[in-house]
Amino acid sequence: MKAAEIAARVEAFVRDVVVPYEKDPRCGAHGPTDELVAELRDKARAAGVLTPHILADGSHLSQRETATVLKASGLSPLGPVAVNTMAPDEGNMYLLGKVGSLEMKERFLKPMVEGRARSAFFMTEPAGEGGAGSDPSMMQTTAVQDGNHWVVNGRKTFITGAKGAKVGIVMAKSTAGACMFVVDLPDPAIRIDRVIDTIDSSMPGGHSMVTIDNLRVPADQMLGANGEGFNYAQVRLSPARLSHCMRWFGATKRANEIATAYAVKRHAFGKPLIDHEGVGFMLADNLIDLKQAELMIDWCADVLDTDVLGTAESSMAKVAVSEALYRVADRCVQVMGGTGVSTDTIVEQVFREVRAFRIYDGPTEVHKWSLAKKIKRDAAKSP
Amino acid sequence: MKAAEIAARVEAFVRDVVVPYEKDPRCGAHGPTDELVAELRDKARAAGVLTPHILADGSHLSQRETATVLKASGLSPLGPVAVNTMAPDEGNMYLLGKVGSLEMKERFLKPMVEGRARSAFFMTEPAGEGGAGSDPSMMQTTAVQDGNHWVVNGRKTFITGAKGAKVGIVMAKSTAGACMFVVDLPDPAIRIDRVIDTIDSSMPGGHSMVTIDNLRVPADQMLGANGEGFNYAQVRLSPARLSHCMRWFGATKRANEIATAYAVKRHAFGKPLIDHEGVGFMLADNLIDLKQAELMIDWCADVLDTDVLGTAESSMAKVAVSEALYRVADRCVQVMGGTGVSTDTIVEQVFREVRAFRIYDGPTEVHKWSLAKKIKRDAAKSP
Amino acid sequence: MKAAEIAARVEAFVRDVVVPYEKDPRCGAHGPTDELVAELRDKARAAGVLTPHILADGSHLSQRETATVLKASGLSPLGPVAVNTMAPDEGNMYLLGKVGSLEMKERFLKPMVEGRARSAFFMTEPAGEGGAGSDPSMMQTTAVQDGNHWVVNGRKTFITGAKGAKVGIVMAKSTAGACMFVVDLPDPAIRIDRVIDTIDSSMPGGHSMVTIDNLRVPADQMLGANGEGFNYAQVRLSPARLSHCMRWFGATKRANEIATAYAVKRHAFGKPLIDHEGVGFMLADNLIDLKQAELMIDWCADVLDTDVLGTAESSMAKVAVSEALYRVADRCVQVMGGTGVSTDTIVEQVFREVRAFRIYDGPTEVHKWSLAKKIKRDAAKSP
Amino acid sequence: MKAAEIAARVEAFVRDVVVPYEKDPRCGAHGPTDELVAELRDKARAAGVLTPHILADGSHLSQRETATVLKASGLSPLGPVAVNTMAPDEGNMYLLGKVGSLEMKERFLKPMVEGRARSAFFMTEPAGEGGAGSDPSMMQTTAVQDGNHWVVNGRKTFITGAKGAKVGIVMAKSTAGACMFVVDLPDPAIRIDRVIDTIDSSMPGGHSMVTIDNLRVPADQMLGANGEGFNYAQVRLSPARLSHCMRWFGATKRANEIATAYAVKRHAFGKPLIDHEGVGFMLADNLIDLKQAELMIDWCADVLDTDVLGTAESSMAKVAVSEALYRVADRCVQVMGGTGVSTDTIVEQVFREVRAFRIYDGPTEVHKWSLAKKIKRDAAKSP
After folding, report:
1. Domain B119-226 falls in which CATH fold?
2. Which of B274, B281, B372 sits opposite A274 (nearest CB)?
3. Domain C2-86 class, CATH top level
4. Which one of B134, B200, C25, C285 has the fewest beta carbons within 10 angstroms of its own beta carbon?
5. Which tens digit of pLDDT belongs to each residue from C248-280?
6. What is the pLDDT of residues D166-187, one digit of tens each?
7. Would you call C199 and B351 a contact, using CB atoms and an 8 Å cutoff?
8. Are residues B351 and C355, on separate chains, in Cβ contact within 8 Å?
9. Residues of A with CB below 8 A from C278's CB?
10. ipTM here
11. CATH number for the domain whose boundaries are C230-381
12. Do D296 and C295 touch (CB under 8 A)?
């Protein structure tokens, strides 16, 4: 099977080539430097595993197949960056592939697929200023038409990868509703006020606070139709959300491999750690949690492959997977004791990344809130 | 698809015909009376849903198909009894179908499949007397050959359905190892010392403490080969364990339907319960837990359908499913407040049943213990 | 110290005299029969431990002292009934002692303190009929003045101990607000529609659904002032809520003693259960949870002894203690395996009782809801 | 009351003077620089709050009083460093005060109390090399007498504050058992191989991996008697363990203040966050968890003040408090969403610190293991 082969090659590449880079000093608090990204991608390109989920003919693997590949890419926190399956690029490529015009695909999508351009998705806004945090209906960034251009103004926050990105997708409100624009970056009208220091550290460019100040965009750079912005956000939403689950599944699986090896090798109180039920039970719980996470990912991928939006399903998967992976990562830290809270292995980083994952792409509570609404709607329909 | 149709008919039968019997006074602390069982089975037979997982030609649905049917049968605590998919009969029929001689199938299996005979599986022994609780290696019941007969002596406990059973499978230790016998019941040499009162109450005959006192069994009633008893126990083990997951999945799903309907209808503090996040989030958690339980059941069924023993997989499924269903049942009780702890709905019973399920067929801790051993073995194999 | 001596005598009485009655067939689904209650109380009276928290001069122990005594009385599910510290009598005696007129004390309180009369508190109403479940503002029972009498009409539910009670305190709404009446029972105008079957089974008389149909009460049987009903409910509320914590603490402590003894004695997989970390850790968690529960009870008792209402503190204690005791009881069941879900020990009953406790006197979620409101109010006050 | 006054002054100092330093760039991954430490301590000295738990006459507050003061000092992650109540100095001062000779007190303790010297406690060893991780019986560092000196050799790890310390207490094994030495630092024979990067970042000097290579110590620098090392470790153990609980209680309390203020101010989906039960319930849980943590600290302090070792009690407190504070910190992060995982407030740091706390001073599992042993011993004693 095609996807399985791709995944196997990605896994081998990540384990053999990428893992040794995990201690590279160019990995910082805001992810690897762009120099390191380029170096990794050169190797991925040479190994034939760059952007592995998009085939040479431009077609995209199914979600179920993508899961196989993205889980493999996630086995190192550096893996997705190296093979170009990382957020937000993966979701942006998906969206441009679905909605972009031919020109946009040539001008913006192509360099992304070739791993030569990183991108950013300018949607979330500072809650503290009344903007849209997890609640998109509160969007305050505006797009006003001015002849053959649009003028965009607003504030955005937690814009992953903005620093260093070459392509931006900007969401704003017009009189027709929400709309999106694709723009070249950097642009002086899109000012990075600061890169926010956060508990996670795998994403190149980090997460930025941004001011958009009279950004002028030619009308033909509007993505799709005016007023359809929320619909396009929906198109991107579920697959992008699920791809987070896939990548972090890989990272957590690797953390569990490290913790298991540790528990087998180290002794305390007269026997290997794993022979202590207190440790062995944690690893058994990990085995179960990882299996359940995998099954949820595959199930949700199958749903998305039927071409429905899958909003509820991806909410269920996001909650279940992020919380399960977090429990796994936390147990890995605990099993390894002092070594677990040190940076001597990637377990400590995976724990921090997955902590953030419980909030990124909608905190657990927001998803439960929307699921409760759905349960109520469904109950109203049943006799 | 065949199984889906069978399941749909079973579901309709359980919802329409069985559910109204849930308040029948013949449902007691040790399950429905045999009179009630017979009445329900007459109706199931008439509706063509008796023993629905075994086809007219004697063939057995695959595990994956069985899951569909058994989940449907479990929608009422009386459902499995009514359609003859309950424990321990379901597992005993499976074992006799796999290992029994033609004569045994005709004499013992046939009346069971026809829903005219209940059965019991005499394996577990009183831990307090040094016998095999969750640890089969401690088995103390003996089988000694005496000419063309075997003489069996020992003590058994938690023998589900022993009271009222017409067929018994008795496990004992011979010099060759463990062996099993199929016997007619009742037999004066198999004395029911008492039926143990327990927190659950769905299984006809309850769970008995039994003394086997010089039981003489003709040699041709030994099931399969002498010394193979543990292997046959393994054959029965995983499918039987998984069938518990299937049935109780159905029961818990129904409890969740009841709790959801309650939360939509009842008001407190100015709005429907479900509009309180404290309640809505619990129902969202239920949705997720039920989905995960279902996925684990299907995954494990697929593994068993490849004809492996699936010991580790069924341990994983048993732990994950029993604990998930318990959380769901507990939340259902909590959502319904005073009504939840009353017997006005089956939610209270389902909660009690699923509490016991965390112990029956191996407590969660025993499964984690054996999974930890497996993790250690697997780690030793990897480079 | 006085209270410590009383508690020691109560503990000795419960362990030596009451515990053997736990298997008495007169203990049913709705608690012990009134015959058994009388028999136990005769023994308590003879041992000088009847109503031990109210001294011979009519004075009441402080809440902190009461904790010591009530925890001891709770060591058996029959203990509080035996020594007359049970709900709702304990709270009703407290309320009558605080608010009752001299005549009321002589006529109603005296026989209760002497253990000759049980009582009931008619407050909660059927949520399904729009009445007050956990939300007292929804009260629908009315009291209308008619000359020198009041006429009361309404429906009440979950009225603990109503069946068999000789004294009733009835809460209703008048034009002045809420009010309370003290009445003799039984009264044909207070009709017990049914005793609700519930998961718990320790309270004599069970919990009843009641119709009050033109109950005529002489005006001098109004408890305290008209319109003050909610205030009196508040006076009773926190101490009564805390006394639940005290009694069930005792029951759970005993369950833990039983589970610990079991874990020390029984063997599995080659060693005593307690030497398995999977079991030992559960008992360690119990040790910690019980200590925390005890500290919360003592802290809240100290607060109440300063004569404040302590609504938030008793909410905190109720949530923390009921949830902690539940975890403990659940672990006791799990440690004991099959024996844990059987009625062979009281562990199974304690588990069921404490499950109900998470709902009785306000479900956990209602308390958290009111605590969240308080946190918001307090935050508004801080600079 | 004395201690309450001291605590109030410490709290005011921390809130007014220390908190503004939290954004100081001299706070790094291995705690504040020694320059910053000196600056903070100058201010503490001027404010009369330096080493506030040791009075001018050299006497030490009781543990219960110490709790009041140390909780106040912990309100900022920089607070304990600023007022000299931090680990490991606090425990080292305690031990020297209890066991040190007059000369040692003058030479080593005095500068520590005056806040002019930091110290380190060289006990834990690299588990990976077979040394003592959480299991002190595995200690491999040796002390061999050589005339009037001792020669010490070994490897130590996770030695907090070693870098920059002026005083060291070194634990080793002699033929008489374990013993301790007090030495000046730095010493070329105590080589800091590396400072381990860890998830926490509040402790000056970080945690070091150390090689002790032919360290020669004059015999009169042996602390107390030869062979008594484990006993002295016990003397230091429980108070030091509890002081961690105190300080981190303060930090977590402050995190909860920040999260509460956030939840009151920020809006989502049409109302303040705190009015969403999903958020309000988390804050209610925090209120309860913080109260329980405080009660456990006070209870354990009371036990220690009776002059017992309190090993079991401090294990119970350590497990209960570290796990409770972790739940609180995790909820604070979650309540604050994106802001919670950013370093914009100290919530993110507190979360990381408290994560490590579940491992430092004995992982939760090691404490449960030793509590299980104690439960077994106690059970053997009871009839």
Report:
1. Butyryl-CoA Dehydrogenase, subunit A; domain 2 (2.40.110)
2. B372
3. mainly alpha
4. C25
5. 999 999 999 999 999 999 988 889 999 999 999
6. 999 999 999 999 999 999 999 9
7. yes
8. yes
9. 277-278, 281
10. 0.96
11. 1.20.140.10
12. yes
